[in-house]
Amino acid sequence: MLLSYNCHKKNTPENEEDMDKKQARKYVKEIKKTLSESEVIERSKNVINRIYGLSQYKNSVNILTYVNYNQEVVTKELINVCLADGKNVYVPKVYGKEMKFHRINSLDDLKPGAYGILEPVTQYTEDVSEGLMIMPGVAFDKKLNRAGYGGGFYDRYLEKHPDICKAAVCFDFQVVDEIETENYDLKPDVLVMESGVLVGNTGEYE
Predict the structure, then answer these.
(1) Which of 88, 110, 175, 191 could pair covalently with 118 via S-S, beta carbons 3.0-4.6 A apart?
(2) Per-residue model confidence as pLDDT tens digits over 17-43
(3) What is the CA radius of gyration of the chain?
């Protein structure tokens, strides 16, 4: 059973309780194709507004966040709010197989890079050891297992920065009962959705 978006249930795999990453990615991407730009923006507001109530957000000076692309949860408003709240905001840029974070002072510090994804134009990276990371993903399950885009950038970065708190964001239809994962796959500490926040390995709502 999916947490929501049951109108798309007919498109799920027969054994939806046990998807591998490939199945989960395919399922979510098919739904994303049906969303209009206005739907993505409106749904994103419901997700992002929940972040501001997290203790992890309130207690963090440093916020590391992706910049949305291709029907991901929109983060531009989040970036503006973080800056207005006096947070240090860092966004990622890929260097080969590694991801590094650059501090920005406004959305004007971002320009289209590879594939049209907005990237920081500032020259210097900073190695942030503590803070809150807002991370994307293609699909998640109720135990906070994550299927990313397959590049492993977040897994590699977070393995080297274990003290960073990980908050993943997604639309409700991106959450399924169970995803098959590997031992090296890192889980977020919390999963922020339209309908609520899932915490830790318990799958309990906060």
Answers:
(1) 110
(2) 567 888 888 999 999 999 999 999 999
(3) 16
